[in-house]
Write a structure and sequence with these properties.
This protein is mainly α and 156 residues long. It has 2 helices and no strands. Residues 68-156 form the IF rod domain.
Length: 156
Amino acid sequence: MTDEYLPKTHQKTVLLNRSTVVPKSRTSLYNVSTSVSRLSGSGFFDPSVYSKMSNAGISDFRGNREKEKREMQGLNERLASYIEKVRFLEAQNKRLEAENEALRNRKQEDWKPIRDMYEGELNQCRELLKQMSTEKGVNEGRLAGMQDEIRALKEL
């Protein structure tokens, strides 16, 4: 293109150099630099327009940066609470596993007195059942005999 088609009043070139520096630390800092150089060439806007556009871009960038920072802080807090909860649950799980293992390793002798007591009661119940069965048989025999006597007396 030739210069005859371009406006002759403001022949300048505006260069915007933006560089971003992100350190490896937790909080990132952004270094934004702008430079305006007037070189030969053509421009469509007045330098103040570029300055306003650049400042608007920087403020947008800073606003986005602050928003991202707040989001990251919120996410970091959520992550910290999840990690804390996981650690608590792991400790509780470890305690329950130790308790379970202790109960499993308990010797049979600990249960022997209880087992002996219930086995004694069970044997007593079995003896009582035998006695009652015997009594029932005897009583059923007597009942049958008495019913025969009643029938015989009714026939007389």
